[in-house]
């Protein structure tokens, strides 16, 4: 390992490889950590830096990733690898062009999360297009990881939903169940099946029990069906303080409240609360995407308001719009509202002190 470290250092010093320095530094930093330290005050003592933060998120995504392969075969892994390849290539090209460091951890989270919110039947070339678009327009045009306004994975998902609506809304695969499931096959026979949310909107009776919805027996996006694993991962992120508990609690709680009211008034349009919570990508969105610290409010009251509005929008989208799955659209809209929410909270809670007895020109 020391020899490899020496080789990387020597390559970084070569003038002929100047263009590739962001890639070499990213590899060095990822393998051996950073040797940069602050030389003067102020110093901030914290037990969670950005790298560990991102790696904890990747760790929390593992149950959904493994479940995606189990339910939909090794093609799910192929979709993940395609997303990583094209999303990573986009970030590398931007880093070389800007002569800046590659944020490898941010790349890993975005490119891993993106395929998990896609239908398992989506062609690989569309996965590549969506991953590239999401990283390009959702992250890099704003300056890269930490400066993006929108969640990059959601930007890619919304783009291909608009560009390829039939592939994103009508072709769903029944998950493989029993034994080793998809671990023994590349892809199961595609059986066109409606997701529970689509079936409800079409007026069909609920054909899946709440237990089946919880453990992944219903069709849906690759990483969103094993909801028990998502709940455990979400609790892990909150306990380790990687994500703030206010947003998922406010989000899921408001969905339960608003859907209860809506179901009493218009049961044919608004599904009951438990069905809302255990269908679609609500749990995945609440625990993994809505809690993104870059695109969500940083104030405590702002987080509560953010989650409350997400719940209201999700119930409205699911019940009254053409987009049956309203989670990604709700989060995208609220990402745009985040700066305004924080600004309003700061102005209301932290008003300027009145300058009594002090001349105006002081």
Number of domains: 1
**How large, in whole angstroms, is the Cα Rg?**
22 Å
| Shape annotation | globular
Report the portion of residues in β strands: under 5%
- Helix run count: 16
H/E element sequence: HHHHHHHHHHHHHHHH
Helix content: 55-70%
Care to describe what's here?
It is built from 16 helices and no strands. It is mainly alpha-helical. Helix 11 packs parallel to helix 14 and helix 12 runs antiparallel to helix 14. About 2% of the residues have low confidence. 60% of the residues lie in helices and 0% in strands. It has one domain.
What topology emerges from the helices and strands here?
Elements: H1 2-13, H2 21-32, H3 50-72, H4 75-98, H5 104-116, H6 124-138, H7 152-163, H8 165-169, H9 196-201, H10 210-215, H11 227-239, H12 246-265, H13 273-277, H14 282-289, H15 300-320, H16 327-349
Helix pairs in contact: 1-2, 3-5, 3-11, 4-5, 4-6, 5-6, 5-7, 6-7, 7-16, 11-14, 12-14, 12-15, 15-16
Looking at this protein, list some descriptive labels:
single chain; 362 residues; mainly alpha; 16 helices; globular
Short description:
By secondary structure, this protein is mainly α. It is 60% helix and 0% strand. The N and C termini lie far apart (62 Å).
